[in-house]
Design a protein that fits this description.
It is a single chain. The chain is of the alpha+beta class. 39% of the residues lie in helices and 15% in strands. It has a four-stranded antiparallel β-sheet, with helices on both faces. It starts with 6 loop residues before the first helix and ends with a helix.
């Protein structure tokens, strides 16, 4: 069994990390986003369906285009980030199943019910969005995940003519808002049971 990560690594991923609201205005090289995806894509999804689609908006024009669909508060706190990522999912993820699940050619039919397909895309795309956050933190980046945007307008702007639907947005870069207090969390007894 592999050893646990060392405490500093765990702290970087969870205990010391904070959601950010202010950013150092700096461009980052495209290889960062490629490295980030190469890491997050290894996280598990149902039958390896991998429905998440990530649009890394890094130019000022692209970030401004996303911001026009965001609440005023979210837009103002995100534009300086190195990237605003649209975390989305493809409802037609089954098109890639022969590539992603080649040992079972009939697997795409497991998702032939439209509601099952929709639920699977959303659930697993959300999982992959969480992997994005952890992968970004492991690479030394800060994250600012958020809702607070017009899904329909954003999808019409960025994903017209496709089966891709937005889920949430995540600003990425190096945060500048220090110090950041940790908001409360539920205790084990409030959120968990052992049966």
């Amino acid at each position: 069994m592999p050893d646990s990560l060392d405490p500093p690594a765990i702290a970087q991923l969870f205990y010391a990390a904070r959601s950010r609201n202010a950013w150092s205005r700096e461009p980052l090289p495209d290889r960062i986003w490629r490295d980030l995806y190469d890491m997050l894509k290894m996280g598990p999804t149902s039958a390896n369906v991998s429905p998440a689609r990530f649009l890394f908006c890094t130019s000022e024009a692209a970030k401004s285009r996303v911001a026009k669909h965001m609440s005023a508060t979210n837009a103002s706190k995100s534009l300086a980030a190195s990237a605003i990522v649209i975390v989305a999912h493809d409802l037609n993820f089954t098109d890639h199943m022969p590539q992603l699940f080649p040992h079972n050619p009939g697997a795409r039919h497991w998702f032939s019910d439209p509601q099952v397909q929709k639920d699977t895309a959303f659930r697993n795309g959300t999982l992959q969005g969480a992997y994005l956050i952890l992968a970004a933190r492991s690479l030394g980046l800060d994250c600012g995940p958020m809702s607070g945007f017009d899904h329909e307008a954003l999808d019409a702007d960025f994903f017209a003519g496709t089966a891709i639907k937005s889920n949430f947005l995540c600003a990425l870069g190096h945060g500048e808002d220090q110090p950041l207090a940790r908001l409360p969390r539920l205790a084990f007894e409030e959120a968990c049971k052992i049966l």
